[in-house]
Amino acid sequence: MAYEKNRHKQMELMSLSESLVLIQTPWLDRITRKLADREGVRAGFHEVLVPFYELIKRAVETNEPVWLDSLLAEWVTTPTETQLEAVQDNLIEVLSNILIATSELAGELLTPEAAFELQSALLPVFTHAMEFISVQETNIRIQHITNELNQANSVVEKLEKSKSDFISVAAHELKTPLTLIEGYSSMLKDTLPSEDTKKTQAILCLKGVDAGTTRLREIVDDMIDVSMIDNNLLALAFQPVWLSHIIHAIEHEFEDTVKQRKINYTLQDFPGLNEMFFADGERLYQAIRNVVTNAIKYTPDGGKIDIDGRLLPGFIELIVKDTGIGIDPEDHSRIFEKFGRLGDVSLHSSGKTKFKGGGPGLGLPIAKGIVDAHGGTVWVESEGYDEIRCPGATFHIMLPLRKSPPDDKSAKLFRGITERVIPG
């Protein structure tokens, strides 16, 4: 019984092989004509289809469609200037047309039984081939898109570096003439005439020069800070700090501005406000000051700014909440990018603390860079932008609550302080 089954199977294979041999020559001629119109192109297709047909025969005889995989992989990756140029973009359609043409040819040249048997054997082979090509083409497209994204990212990185280099060079180049202006302004004050009227007028002029150079120096310093943050060169000097000291100093700095604009500025006595921890106090002052400045700038006269916070395991969180014009959700990340200032750029020359006042858009990026350098994070919450309703914005600054400096040298220097703060 087993012998009869094996013999019958061998006869089936012979029958399929014979059918494939019988239709091979007309198959090559018909498929070549079907796929190409020009004589020169037909010759090219004929060279490609001969090994393809041989692999079809082997796949049918062994019932192993994988015989086609190596050739199909070559087809998928064939450059467009080869013989497959006309069909490179849609190989699945080509295989479908080949299968249809083969079935038609089998029906014309073979007995109905032999044609049905061959069609049944060819169907799984071509199904496998189409699935294989689909996967290969998808992988190639993914790789192509990935390469394009990598190239685009490389261009963006180069542009970002060029921008950072320009900021760094421009900032340092501006410092020299700025120092000269400040120096000559100081010399002029010392050489003023004794007449009261002339002296008063000259002093007023020099005060204007001083105000301009001071503002320009702030911008130059901000540009240098941004450049240092971009190049990971921001060095922190860790020392004992208290948020209460920093916030009170900022409150004192903006006292006149808050009064002039009738802003209700309040500081809550939250847990952690008087907690000692190690950080770079000067840089931390700069970061928090930038966030408070932003709150003042975008809060209308008569609005409210509330400073609060909370103590968390291993962290201290500072919360700056305002009743300002708010920020659209899609801009919550953009405001922390350099020059990512929102609103009318024509206001850039106006005062820093006036409502919707100007600035180069470096304050919040610097604040983020400083907080990130401390190992913390900063983010904003706001339901949206509305100058009429003023939904406000809430900035969160999360800082690690370090009870000792991160480096050994500073730890030795402040060992006495940490021992007193942390008994035992």
First CA to last CA: what distance? Answer: 91 Å
Largest sheet: 5 strands, mixed
Shape: elongated
Enumerate how many helices there are, as a single number: 12
CATH superfamily of the largest domain: Histidine kinase-like ATPase, C-terminal domain
What's the SSE pattern? HHHHHHEHHEEHEEHEEHH
Strand order of the largest sheet: 2-4-5-7-6
* Poorly predicted regions: 1-14, 80-89
Bin the strand percentage. 5-15%
The Cα radius of gyration reads 38 Å
| Assembly level | single chain
Helix vs. strand class: alpha+beta
Q: What top-tier CATH class of the largest domain fits best?
A: Alpha Beta
Number of strands: 7
Tally of domains: 3
Task: Say what the CATH topology of the largest domain is.
Answer: Heat Shock Protein 90
Could you estimate the helical fraction of the residues in percent? 55-70%
pLDDT averaged over residues: 81
**Which architecture of the largest domain per CATH?**
2-Layer Sandwich
Explain how this protein is built.
The chain is α+β, with helices and mostly antiparallel strands. The protein has three domains: 2-150; 169-230; 239-421, 2-Layer Sandwich (Heat Shock Protein 90), CATH 3.30.565. The protein has helices at residues 2-35, 39-62, 69-77, 91-109, 112-190, 196-230, 243-253, 255-260, 281-297, 363-373, 408-413, 415-421; strands at 239-242, 264-267, 276-279, 304-312, 315-322, 377-381, 393-400. The chain has a five-stranded mixed beta sheet with strand order 2-4-5-7-6, with helices on one face. It has a two-stranded antiparallel ribbon with strand order 1-3. Helix 1 (2-35) packs across helix 5, helix 7 packs across helix 9 and helix 9 runs antiparallel to helix 10 (363-373). The longest helix is centred in the middle third of the chain and has 79 residues, at 112-190.
